[in-house]
Amino acid sequence: MGKVNCRNCEKETDGDLECCKFCGCPLCSEYEQKIVRIKIPGDITTGLSRLLFSTDVEITDRTDTILWMGRQGEDAGFFVKEPTRITIHLGGIAKPVDGIVRPGKRYCLSQVGGIHLRPVYALCEIPLE
Question: If exposure means fewest CB atoms within 10 Å of the residue's CB, which of 41, 43, 55, 110 is most exposed?
Answer without folding.
Answer: 43
